[in-house]
Amino acid sequence: MKKQLLILLTLSSFVAQAQSYSGYFHDNYAGVQSVLFNPASIADSRFKTDINLFSVSSAVSNDLYGVKLFDVYKDGYDFDSQSKMTPSNANNALINLDIMGPSFMFNIAPKHTLALFTRARSITNLRDVNGSLIDQVKDGLDQASGFGPINAGSPNGAAHAWGELGLSYAAVLLNKNQHFLKGGLTAKYLQGVGNAYIQGKNASASLQEDTNNPENSKLFTTGEMIIGGSQDWEANEDYEFDINSSGIGFDFGFVYEWRPDYAKYDLNNAKPADNNFRDLNKYKLRFGLSVTDIGSINYKKSKQDIYDISGELTQEMIDDTDNLYDLLNDRYTKTSTSKGVKTNLPTALHADVDWNIHNKFYLNLNGDISMVSNSKLNAVNIADRVSLTPRYESRWFSFYVPVTWMEYSGTQIGTGLRVGTFFVGSGSIVSNLVSKESKAADFYVGLKIPVYQKKFKDRDQDGVIDKQDSCKKVAGPIENKGCPWPDTDGDKVLDKDDACPDVAGPVENKGCPWKDTDGDTLLDNVDACPTVSGPVENKGCPWPDTDGDTVLDKDDACPDVAGLVENKGCPVLDTDKDGVADNVDDCPLIAGPAANKGCPEVNKAALAQLQVEAKSIFFTSGKATLSDAKKVETSGRLDAIKEILKNYPNAKFAVYGHTDNVGNDKVNQKLSEERAKVIMDALIEKGVNPANLTSQGFGATKPVKSNKTAAGRAENRRTEIVYLGNF
Length: 727
Description:
Layout: H1 7-10, E1 47-61, E2 65-66, H2 79-82, E3 84-85, E4 91-100, E5 103-109, E6 112-129, H3 131-137, E7 147-153, E8 156-176, E9 179-208, E10 218-229, E11 246-258, E12 285-308, E13 311-314, H4 315-319, H5 324-331, E14 333-344, E15 348-358, E16 361-370, E17 385-393, E18 397-400, E19 403-406, E20 410-413, E21 415-419, E22 422-426, H6 429-434, E23 440-452, H7 604-615, H8 631-645, E24 651-658, H9 665-685, E25 693-697, H10 710-716, E26 718-726
Parallel strand pairs: 24-25
Antiparallel strand pairs: 1-4, 1-5, 1-23, 2-3, 4-6, 5-6, 6-8, 7-9, 8-9, 9-10, 9-11, 10-12, 10-13, 11-12, 12-14, 12-15, 15-16, 16-17, 17-18, 17-19, 18-21, 19-20, 21-22, 22-23, 24-26
Helix pairs in contact: 7-8
């Protein structure tokens, strides 16, 4: 069994990324393939139906060996010497093969879509394998140099192959203005094909080298090993298919689309030729979130063994043993055996953001996160991944360049395209063409039959699509199979709507000429009273007198209430109820005695308040400008004066200005006049009727105190508001 011991270690040389169809599956024309990553994606699809004939996706990558990929296929290539190793204490690996068989999706209603698919899958994982130990013994124990204890930790490996029969349902959940949400669910019947796994517990190894006889070099190992699978591989190395090894799986997901131009796609405004805009992209941003591969397969004939691997090995022991189970049973101690195991699916969370940059150009950011623990026994999972993919997308052609960071294998650049029924691509082809240390390779290819949603033809744009239009080049109504209706009398009223098809008449009279039934020169179409004669000015109707006050409604200012002719048919009112009718009341809104023409008389209290407010208005010393320092107070005083004056709309008031005797008499006279006018103008600006106000200045001619004292002079510098009488 040459190097059989290294089976546990060198499988890490082969790894596959669990992401299938890199760059392709976010294309809006990915069709039924997109359901594998988010069941919601097929709702509101660009396809009437999409049929996958056959497609396959596979990928290989690792974090231990790097090679110049295309040199591997050349004659004479020596993998051990020409590859570059990057050993660590925890190297990782996984292998993925994804084959999609006959599958299809179709819209069962405008908002509902179904998909049915068949799929065969295989994933192999090796995790936390000590790469340094592999490097030491890769050529055999007889070629290795002695080394001290190497902690192998808990290496963990599993391989699983199974088939799926899936049924997906997706529906539009919300379509409101710019917000669009759809959801989807997939239920899968799982048929197990085969499963094998191995896991170490606290393993370590050291090599005691025999320089004189290298074949006697001894590898000392410690720890525990768990090995098992879907059948008893120890008893029978031949594969046995078990139809009873089955399970159920689920996927679910949601897609939100932001549609800022939603008004363009309002179905209420859609024409038949628009086909409900099903052929168009309507989003600016799309957000997707899904969880896939929830479930497991129950292998009823499975067997699991646990071995204590404390002991020693030589290369001769390895070479003389036929298989791994013989080696374990011959050299180590089996501590337990059990049967029956469930093997999980590689449950993962997927998220993506798709940006429609402009027209047919897009940028997609997506990522996958494994939801299965790396330390779980018999666990298969995907590698975490983030990918940025610019793409050009149209109905018959798409091109994309994915740039991907993948757990274990690092950053890769690939490309892919879709041409009608065929698509092909790789997430790492560009990197592998230039890299001398490739740790990844992948490809996908597929053949399908797409049946696209499309806009219907309507050459005459009459709302009847060509395939239903009997007059494809001449517009006509749908009731007449797209052909125009005849108009025999040429009055623009079609015969089907014309009550007088042989005599021209207006549209509003159903194609018949108008009559004048009451003979008042107004045709019935404009006569409001077609059977009763009336003047043209009243649209052919006699003038009414609704309130019977002999004033016709057309001249009556109060047509529903009897009144006097001299008051335009309205009764005399007394709005303020002061006993003075409004028509002779100078103040109809404010009560006052008849002797004062219905206006209130100015009372002593109001005059006293006016004097208080007027005396408290301050000017800049020696000037006719209001004091800035007292601006707020002055404004309040003016407001108070205004409120008093508005109560006497028929009263005449004067604003008087006075000064002390200091200075020139002419200057004082002018200053008093200007100050009085400033206050009058300020009151008018605040809303006082100019007709109610005058202003006058008296200089120092009317002192109220002696000008011999400062206090007296201050009293003499004043403004007053005086009641002059009524209009």
